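User: Hey, quick favor. My workstation is busy. Could you predict this chain's structure for me?
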Amino acid sequence: MTLGWSPVAPTRGSLAGYTIVAEDETTGLVVDEQDVAPDVHHASVAGLSADRSYRFRIRADTTEGPGAATVVLGAPDDAGPAPALPASPSVLATTAGDGFVTVGWAPPADDGGAPILAYSLVALRSDDSSLVAWRNLDPQARTASISDVANGTELDVQVVAWNAVGPAATAAVSATPATSGGAPQPPAAVPAIEVGSSNGTATVSWGTAPERGLPVLGYSVVVSEHVGDRPVHLVEWRNVSPDARSATFTNLSLCRYDVHVIAHGVTGFGDVAASLDRPIQPVPMTDGRHFCAQPPED
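Assistant: No problem, here it is.
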């Protein structure tokens, strides 16, 4: 069984390593204990019985002493292939302003068969590779800012994804804070939303959102029920990749919907593009008829 954890940045002292303790959950007996180097963030525990549950304690040890342990419960699972390292984060983008740099990324296309546990961001000076910032971020993070950097200082920024097996290959980009950078802007609205439907299935397509100087990191497609002169409730909110230009929704049982498409980038969501009060042909009834008061428009 393989355990993984995100790196720890001690508040006191320096990191000396990690201690891993495996206990039988029923008896409380220790079945394995390991000391792991500070630059290693995974460990394999062998000799476990498939019919028993175990308690795993993961503890960071510093030069000032041991820290608090994180407790994880689990049981061995022999089904499926062993997880592998994830791919690198993609669509790395930056924007620079007065004394700061903001970096954005998309999740790895392949998580290696194990969920992403964290991201690490490292910023180094390009001229001498000295450390400017090191951040450990939640798996939901998609942007991070590095502040208090002298304007004109070129930085090499690296983002790494972690899963239970370990770190992915580094994704890197260069950026330079500057007073002329201006306030970062989110993407503009996407052009030309089109909606085609048949028998409860609707396909939404759209054009490429203008970047305003920064890459688009993805799109959100929002479908809401429309009754009268306003949307009533959310049917589905779907986030898609920056390369996507269409999304298909199925099992739509009502007659009219509002559709919104929103581009998002390093600095947040762009302007909303909408196709309102859109007739969508619903799933037909058992006799083949539709229950809409008016026939759906083409």
